[in-house]
Amino acid sequence: MSMLNRNKEQIYLYSSLIILPLLSVIILAYATMGVPTDISALADGILVLLLVPIIIFAGLTLIFLLVLSYYLGRLYKSTNSLLDNLQIFTERTNTSAKRYAQKTSVQINQFNRIIQIPLNTMGYLRRQFTNLF
To answer: Is 19:56 a contact under the CB 8 Å cutoff?
Structure first.
């Protein structure tokens, strides 16, 4: 925060150093002219010169905000595109996982049937054998 204040002080110092010679030139120009001067025009000129740093700062702030909004818009578009791609990838992954889960379930059921065939055969033969005696 102190660095920011120091930078502001430097900006005001440099702008004041620029404005002071301009004011002195205007005052000397009016003083050397032999015509009566319009004090309100002189006051308006001095006021404009005093407001120049504020006008420049406001312009730079507007430019910064425009650039920031442009890059935030680009960031939003790229993030939105990335999320859309991620959603498509997730949907494809979910369908693949469901398909493989279904295939695995079918294979396990077939494996259980294959295992149960000898067990059922042994049970049938045991019943037949007990029926004989």
So the answer is: no
Q: Give the tokens for residue 51.
A: 């407001």
3-state SS, 90-119, equals HHHHHHHHHHHHHHHHHHHHHHHHHHHHHH
For residue 61, the one-letter residue type is T
Q: What is the pLDDT of residue 83?
A: 94
What sign has the CA pseudo-torsion 35, 39, 40, 41? positive
The answer to whether the CB of 12 falls within 8 A of the CB of 53 is yes
User: Residue 35 carries which DSSP code?
Assistant: S
pLDDT at res. 1: 45
Tell me which residue has tokens 């045991």. 126
User: Model confidence over 20-31: pLDDT tens digits?
Assistant: 887 788 777 766
What is the biggest distance separating any 2 CA atoms in the chain, rounded to whole angstroms? Answer: 147
